[in-house]
Write a structure and sequence with these properties.
Elements lengths: L4 E4 L1 E4 L4 E6 L4 E11 L7 E7 L2 E7 L2 H4 L2 E9 L9 E9 L5 H12 L18 E4 L2 E4 L5 H8 L2 E5 L6 E3 L2 E2 L2 H9 L20 H5 L12 H5 L1 H5 L6 H11 L7 H8 L14 H5 L6 H5 L1
Parallel strand pairs: 1-6, 7-11
Antiparallel strand pairs: 2-3, 3-4, 4-5, 5-6, 7-8, 9-10, 9-11, 12-13
C-alpha cells in the first residue's frame, strides 16, 4: 500500500461507496472506493481513505473555510459608559480564514477598520482568561474559539457582545468587581501553619492530588459566572467559579480553612443550595472543568 495526500476541492459521488476527486493544484483526478471515513473529525478538513487499484490514498475533504478566506459579517456591541446612554450595534465585514480565532477578528476590526474598539486580551494561549466574550449569546474565550466552528453553529452573521452588557464600561470591557468580590469571599488560597524554615518537602501523593479533580485548572475568565442564570437573578449567589475554587482548596489535604469555606458556601441565598443545576457552566468552561460537578 502506498499513502498519498490530496487536498480535495471538488468531488462527486460515483456510487454509494465510490467517489471521484479533483485537486486543482496538481490537476489530478482520482476515483476509488471509500474504505475508511471519519465523520467526527474536527479542527480541520474531513478525511477518508480511498482504495484505488492496489493503492490506498488519503483524501481530505475541505470545506470553504479551509480553501480560502470568506467574508463574514460581525455585529459588534458598542458602548462607552462615559458618553453613551444606550449601546448600539455596528456591523463589520471581515475576511476570515480556516484558522482565524475570534481574537483575530477583534484584532482585525481594531487594527484595520475601527481603532476605537475596546476589548481585553493578553496571553493568546487560553491561560489568562482576559479575552472572554459572548458570540450569539454563547460565552467563549476569544483566543480559543475558531470562527469556522461558530459559523457552522450560527451561520455567517455573528454577534459579539461583552460577558455582561449591564456591566459594560467600554465595548467588550466590563466591570468584574462583582466576580472578584465573590471570588475572594471563599478564600481562594491555601491556609496552613507551616514551618518558616522547613527541612523537607510537604509531599502530596497522587491519590490526594487527584481529589482536587482538575479544579485548579480554573483561569478565572468568568465565562461560567456570567453565563449562570442563578447569578443573573440572584446577585448574592456566589456563582460557579468561586464555588469551584472553594472546592479546590477544601479538597487540598494541606489546607486548614475547610470549615470556614463550608460555612460560607452552605449559606442559603449565596451558597451551593441556590445552584439551579442547569449545567450551563459546564457548557461554557474553556478548560472543560465542569464546575457543576464540583458544586453538587
Amino acid at each position: 500500500c502506498i499513502s498519498m495526500s490530496f487536498l480535495l476541492f471538488y468531488f462527486s459521488l460515483a456510487s454509494a461507496n465510490w467517489i471521484r476527486c479533483y485537486d486543482p493544484n496538481t490537476e489530478v483526478t482520482i476515483q476509488g472506493e471509500i474504505v475508511f471515513f471519519n465523520p467526527y473529525h474536527r479542527g480541520g478538513p474531513q478525511r477518508f481513505w480511498l482504495q484505488v487499484d492496489e493503492k490506498k490514498i488519503l483524501v481530505f475533504l475541505a470545506p470553504w473555510w479551509f480553501l480560502e478566506k470568506k467574508k463574514i459579517t460581525f455585529k459588534v456591541f458598542r458602548f462607552n459608559k462615559d458618553t453613551d446612554y444606550l449601546p448600539v450595534y455596528k456591523n463589520y465585514e471581515v475576511d476570515v480564514s480556516s484558522q482565524d480565532l475570534m481574537l483575530d477578528v477583534l484584532n482585525k476590526i481594531k487594527w484595520e477598520q475601527d481603532g476605537s474598539l475596546s476589548y481585553r486580551r493578553s496571553c493568546r494561549h487560553g491561560i489568562c482568561g482576559s479575552c472572554a466574550v459572548k458570540v450569539n449569546g454563547k460565552a467563549t474565550l476569544a483566543c480559543k474559539e475558531r470562527v469556522a466552528d461558530l459559523v457552522e453553529i450560527f451561520g455567517e452573521e455573528l454577534t459579539i457582545e461583552p460577558q455582561n452588557k449591564s456591566r459594560a464600561i467600554k465595548d467588550m470591557v466590563i466591570d468584574k468587581k462583582d466576580f472578584w468580590d465573590k471570588y475572594n469571599k471563599v478564600k481562594p488560597y491555601l491556609e496552613a501553619e507551616i514551618d518558616e524554615a522547613p527541612k523537607s518537602e510537604n509531599i502530596v501523593n497522587q491519590e490526594e492530588a487527584e481529589q482536587i479533580d482538575e479544579a485548579d485548572y480554573c483561569i478565572q475568565c468568568g465565562n461560567c459566572y456570567y453565563a449562570c442564570p442563578a447569578v443573573e437573578v440572584n446577585p448574592d449567589y456566589l456563582g460557579p467559579a468561586p464555588l469551584v475554587l472553594a472546592y479546590r482548596f477544601n479538597a487540598d489535604v494541606r489546607d486548614e480553612a475547610k470549615k470556614e469555606r463550608l460555612e460560607t458556601v452552605n449559606q442559603l441565598g449565596q451558597g451551593i443550595w441556590d445552584c439551579v443545576k442547569c449545567y450551563e457552566c459546564a457548557q461554557v468552561c474553556p478548560k472543560e472543568i465542569a464546575p457543576i460537578d464540583k458544586i453538587i
